[in-house]
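Dear Dr. H.,

I hope your travels went smoothly. While you were away I took the liberty of generating a structure for the chain from your last submission, since the lab meeting agenda had it listed for discussion. I wanted you to have the full record in hand beforehand rather than looking at slides cold. The sequence, exactly as received, is reproduced here:
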Amino acid sequence: MSEIKLKELIKNFGGNSIAVDNLSEVFPDGEFVCLLGPSGCGKTTTLRMIAGLETPDSGEILHGDKIFFSSKTGELVKTENRNLGLMFQSYALWPHMTVYKNIIFGLDMQKKTSEEKEKRYLELEKLFHLENFRDRYPSELSGGQQQRVALARMLAIKPSLLLLDEPLSNLDSSLRLEMRSELKRLHQSIGCTIIFVTHDQMEAMTLATLIAVMNNGKIEQIDKPMEIYNNPKSLFVAKFVGSPQMNIINTDKDKELALCLSNKLNIQKNSVKNFGVRPESIKMVKNNEGDINAIIETIQPTGADWIIGLNIFNKSLFLISSDHPIAKENESVGVIFKSEGCHSFDSQDLRIHKN
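The corresponding predicted structure, in token form, is as follows:
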């Protein structure tokens, strides 16, 4: 197993549509890397180039010392020779084959012996809890069971790299939770490098050992999940990661509120274009006992938490709290901003204040 190196990768789909823009990055060996970003940011194109399903316009892709692609030398290794496992939104199980036949399909292609196929199947059957499913067909399986079979089939050939493109998107919420646990357990068991594409920040935060946040064909930040959350390098990363989304206060449009935050963080307001405040870093207190007063606009119970909509100087903000609201809608409360969840960004949308 080895790291994945991307060097100055460019992929253009015609006109001004640059899907991947001069991307250089290293994905370390053994990490569970989530490529996270909105639709059209280049994450799936990046994955498909690593897989060999798309050919870059220029740049290099290396897996350790092995060159997958190089525009400099003209080298291009076909997908089937890259020793990787692929899984997409559609599991693409063969409907006319049993679970056993689906799982050993790649081993059949490799001309393995019956003994080798049986041994590998039994290993995977145990790993994915597929006992008693051997002779069933895909139509006789639940969505979660089908996904486990697809994962087992992908791992049967012992790939050195796993590439997953939103494989959980077709599952309902309870199955998604179950499958996230399966994928996490799988990574801990086999320890190989996994690159996982998703637009779902919850998936990225719970699964990844490293998150690469992509925007406009570039990686804006690659880091451990909580580092991404607590220390976003850019306004885009700060807004994209977190639910509810970070509250953004513009120093030109929201002058009174910006002044309050400037004093709270002890930072010169004229160096800041936007302040950002995490919803969980806003605390309600009695009227006139906080940093500033606010009017409660909305109260949304979620079960475990409350999402409270506030109006401060005609600016709408959201806070999230596990405590029952201390006031009702249209009533005035005090608000305290916790400095550890407050950030500031310059005119280039880069974070300039480190807590």
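Two observations you may find useful: The longest helix spans residues 173-190. The chain has ten helices and 18 strands.

With kind regards,
E. W.
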